[in-house]
Structure formats: structure tokens, C-alpha cells
């Protein structure tokens, strides 16, 4: 299975310019980014709901869209299953009729067989005659997914599939969806702004920021070594400072002058061209109430405790850096208890966790 997407589309003042590939039938690729960045527009271009201005979409060697060759297949001819945010079920159709609507271009007998198969697969027995308004949100989700699979698609597109679900229902559907996608013989493209969902469900990720896609990464790469400001922020990095290379740039790491924190920090991570920021994950920092214990360690940041926030399962400590900006430190409640009375802390950022980042405005 292969999917190649390279499209551009202009809508008013917004420009979409995305390029990525899904390279195997087992791959679940995430498009991760904030609301309004162009993720859903990208899915619409793949599905044929929206026509790009230029570019191409190729699925398993078959051109779905190619502006140069003047190819633009209609949605029904693309064999692409599209799970919309609000499910898009036909309100006047029963469950079995909605599922059957996905089986396009097959005989009546085959449609009946596929509907029965999906009813069993998604545990919809007993509600086949009900209409969407009579179903719970979770049931509507299952019907929508059953309709997609009844069409025997080569590719599944999912647009924020949990946006209308809450709490325990959301968790149950996530587990069911994970099993479904892993068993699906084609690839999947999953749109989300939720990094936790992406971490649990996906194999690879393409960050989308302001209508533009970044380099595809594996999930471990996104969370361990993002190279751009947008990727670091969307992956949950809470601490970012404007920064510049102060020495020894290149693949072996560098010293970064972190202007907002008022310190220089050594990194052993690869340094991308055009570094504008440095990032530190809040959970990876180490702190000492006694500065002597940090003596000799690299990247020591002397900080004053600004405030302590007691969260449900952890403690969040906001620390004032020499440059005046705040640094966020998060730890288990038990880990903070021995330090609770401290007003000054020595924060250690190991060179392996200092992330050099490009792509932001450092001015």
C-alpha cells in the first residue's frame, strides 16, 4: 500500500501546501497540528471533497488527482473511506441502510452480506432498524466506521474521531478504533490536535503548521528529538526560549545562548540549520535544593520558586530563571515533598534533553 500526497490550495488568505507519504499497509500516519492549520482541508483534498489548485494524490499507483495530467476522480471512485468529525450519517436511514450506503457498485446480495458482516464486527445487533437520532454518540461512531468498511476502501481517513465523545465512552471507542485500524489491510491517515491520541494510536506523524507540512517523523522521534518549534510545541514541550548557537554548531551538538532564560546550555542533539529557539520538557528536568549537589553538572540553571501548583496526580512548579522568564518543572507529588519548603533551586538540564529548534520568529 502506498499513498503520495503533494497538494497546494489557496482559500482566501489561507494557503495549504502539504506533502507526505504513507509507505505501508500497516502504517497509521497522523496529521498533527492546532485547529485551523489545514489538517481537515488536507483530508478533503485526498477524499475528493475539495479540489486542490495543483499537485497530485496517488493511491497504490493510481492517480486520484493530478493537476498536470488533468486527473480528478470523483469521491465515489477513489476507494477512500472518510470518517467525518460529526459522522455524516443519513438521518432518515436506518442503521443497516446507512451501512449499506457505503457498499457502492455491488450486487444486492453482496451489499446484504457486507452489512451483516459489519453489524457483527461492530456489535450493532438489535439496533439495525434504528435511525441516527435514536443512537448514542458511540453507536453513531460505530455505524459510521462500519459504513466505511462496507465500501472495501484502500485507505481510511479519520478527522478528529473523538471530538464528539467524552470520558469513558471516548476511551472505549479509542480501543475499538485501535483494533480496527490495526486489522485493516490498507493504510490510514489520522487527523488530530491531541498528542496523546497520536502517541497511542499512530506510527508516524507529520506536523502541520499554518498550512504547511513538516518532515514526517516516527512517533518516538517527535517526542524525543523534534527539530522545529511547531513540532516541539504540539508534542507538549512547555519550556521554550529564544536561542542562538553560541559555539560548536553541527551534528555533534552546540552551546545555545538562551536569551529568555539568561543562560547558555549545552546540547548533544543534532542542531538544525537556522536555530531560533531551545526547548526543555518539564518532566525531564532535575532539581536540587542544595546548589552544592549540582556542582560539576552541565547546564545548571539557578532558579527562584515563583509558585507551586498542585495538580491531580503531579506537582507543577513555576521557576524564575536568571533571564526573568518562567521555567515549568513537573514531577510526582512524592518527588516534590522533600523540596516543598525551598525558595531557591538548582535546575539541571542534561545536554541530551536540550532541544535546538528552528522555524520560529526569534525577534
General shape: elongated
Low-confidence stretches: none
CATH homologous superfamily heading of the largest domain = P-loop containing nucleotide triphosphate hydrolases
Number of helices: 9
What descriptive keywords fit this protein?
363 residues; 9 helices; 7-stranded mixed β-sheet; Rossmann fold
What does this protein structure show overall?
By secondary structure, the protein is α+β, with helices and mostly antiparallel strands. The chain folds into two domains: 222 residues, P-loop containing nucleotide triphosphate hydrolases (Rossmann fold, 3-Layer(aba) Sandwich), CATH 3.40.50.300; 123 residues, Beta Barrel (OB fold (Dihydrolipoamide Acetyltransferase, E2P)), CATH 2.40.50. 23% of the residues lie in helices and 34% in strands. The protein is built from nine helices and 22 strands. The strands form four sheets. Strands 3, 7, 8, 9, 10, 11 and 12 form a seven-stranded mixed β-sheet that branches. It has a five-stranded antiparallel β-sheet with strand order 2-1-4-5-6, covered by helices on one side. Strands 15-14-13-16-22 form a five-stranded antiparallel β-sheet. The radius of gyration is 24 Å and the shape is elongated. The mean pLDDT is 93.
Write the layout of secondary structure elements.
Blueprint: E1 3-11, E2 14-22, E3 28-32, H1 39-47, E4 54-59, E5 62-66, E6 71-72, E7 80-83, H2 95-100, H3 108-121, H4 137-150, E8 155-159, H5 167-183, E9 187-192, H6 195-201, E10 204-209, E11 212-213, E12 217-218, H7 219-224, H8 229-234, E13 239-247, E14 254-258, E15 263-267, E16 275-280, E17 286-288, E18 300-310, E19 314-320, E20 326-332, H9 333-336, E21 344-348, E22 355-358
Parallel strand pairs: 3-9, 3-10, 7-8, 8-9
Antiparallel strand pairs: 1-2, 1-4, 4-5, 5-6, 10-11, 10-12, 13-14, 13-16, 14-15, 16-22, 17-21, 18-19, 18-21, 19-20
Amino acid at each position: 500500500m502506498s499513498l503520495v500526497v503533494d497538494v497546494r490550495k489557496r482559500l482566501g488568505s489561507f494557503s495549504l501546501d502539504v506533502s507526505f507519504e504513507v509507505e505501508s499497509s500497516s502504517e497509521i500516519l497522523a496529521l498533527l497540528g492546532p485547529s485551523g492549520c489545514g489538517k481537515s482541508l488536507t483530508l478533503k483534498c485526498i477524499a475528493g471533497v475539495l479540489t486542490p489548485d495543483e499537485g497530485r494524490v496517488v493511491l497504490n499507483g493510481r492517480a486520484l488527482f493530478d493537476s498536470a495530467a488533468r486527473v480528478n476522480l470523483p469521491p465515489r471512485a477513489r476507494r477512500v473511506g472518510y470518517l467525518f468529525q460529526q459522522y455524516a450519517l443519513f438521518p432518515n436511514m436506518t442503521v443497516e441502510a446507512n451501512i449499506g450506503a457505503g457498499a457502492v457498485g455491488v450486487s444486492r446480495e453482496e451489499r446484504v452480506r457486507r452489512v451483516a458482516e459489519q453489524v457483527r464486527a461492530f456489535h450493532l445487533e438489535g439496533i439495525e432498524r434504528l435511525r441516527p437520532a435514536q443512537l448514542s454518540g458511540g453507536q453513531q461512531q460505530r455505524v459510521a466506521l462500519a459504513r466505511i468498511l462496507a465500501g472495501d476502501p484502500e485507505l481510511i481517513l479519520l478527522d478528529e474521531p473523538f471530538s464528539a465523545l467524552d470520558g469513558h465512552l471516548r476511551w472505549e471507542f479509542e480501543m475499538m478504533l485501535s483494533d480496527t485500524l490495526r486489522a485493516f489491510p490498507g493504510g490510514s491517515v489520522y487527523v488530530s490536535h491531541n498528542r496523546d491520541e497520536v502517541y497511542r494510536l499512530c506510527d508516524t506523524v507529520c506536523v502541520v503548521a499554518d498550512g504547511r507540512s513538516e518532515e514526517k517523523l516516527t512517533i518516538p522521534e517527535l517526542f524525543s528529538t523534534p527539530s522545529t518549534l511547531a513540532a516541539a510545541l504540539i508534542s507538549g514541550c512547555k519550556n521554550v526560549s529564544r536561542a542562538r548557537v553560541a559555539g560548536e554548531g553541527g551534528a555533534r551538538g552546540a552551546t545555545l545562548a538562551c536569551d529568555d532564560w539568561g543562560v547558555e546550555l549545552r546540547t548533544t542533539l543534532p542542531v538544525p540549520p537556522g536555530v531560533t529557539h531551545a526547548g526543555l520538557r518539564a518532566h525531564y528536568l532535575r532539581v536540587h535544593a542544595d546548589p552544592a549537589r549540582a556542582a560539576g553538572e552541565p547546564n545548571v540553571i539557578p532558579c527562584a520558586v515563583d509558585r507551586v501548583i498542585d495538580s491531580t496526580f503531579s506537582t507543577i512548579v513555576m521557576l524564575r530563571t536568571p533571564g526573568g522568564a518562567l521555567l515549568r518543572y513537573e514531577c510526582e507529588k512524592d518527588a516534590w515533598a522533600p523540596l516543598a519548603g525551598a525558595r531557591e533551586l538548582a535546575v539541571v538540564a542534561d545536554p541530551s534533553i536540550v532541544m535546538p529548534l528552528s522555524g520560529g520568529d526569534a525577534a
